[in-house]
């Protein structure tokens, strides 16, 4: 589960960066929300993902 979570977080961050760079605010918000959901899911299972997440990407 941890490796899959890491993969999903990495993918969400990459998509978020691409959406921001392409000036697509709706898509950026969507990927940011997905990233936040993954972080919340990890926390519910006691998994610390802070080292995997670029916190600056969570600010919209």
Automatic annotation (TrEMBL):
This is Uncharacterized protein. It comes from Pseudonocardia halophobica.
């Amino acid at each position: 589960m941890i490796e899959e979570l890491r993969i999903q977080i990495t993918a969400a961050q990459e998509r978020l960066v691409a959406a921001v760079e392409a000036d697509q605010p709706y898509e950026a918000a969507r990927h940011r929300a997905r990233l936040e959901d993954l972080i919340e899911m990890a926390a519910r299972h006691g998994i610390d993902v802070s080292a995997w997440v670029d916190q600056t990407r969570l600010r919209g």
